Amino acid sequence: MLEQTGASGSFTREIAHAVSRHVPDRVVVSSPGEWRILEAMRDWRARFGVPVDILDDNRFVCSTSEFATWAEDRKQLRMEYFYREMRRKAQMYRTWDSLSDERRQRTLASAEAFLTKLDKSSGLRSSARVLP
User: Fold this and answer.
1) What backbone phi and psi angles, to 5 degrees, belong to 39?
2) Among 1, 18, 87, 111, which has the minimal tally of Cβ within 10 Å of its Cβ?
3) 130: closest CA among 101, 119, 117, 113?
């Protein structure tokens, strides 16, 4: 839309044009992935004179408010810990024990093949080995 001939080049200006053209009762948008745009959206109600509903974007595993709750009492924010929690939430976190025997064997074979290839390509002898 912003790349079209005659477009203003600004998301907020394009929304202003749409609001003046269509005179909606309200504007409903999904939360953007960029803080700068979210801040602009928060000003739209005052700027355009219509209610603006900013909905959580369901394309993300976690909402902004859910992240804020997770981060609330932490002294430091580590992506590693956050991602681990999100994998649990999405049930993507699988333990070795939860894998079938066949899947474990394929995983071990794949890891061994990778280490062997690494040894050959680097010319170094890796001391790392995969243990079940």
Assistant:
1) -60, -40
2) 1
3) 113
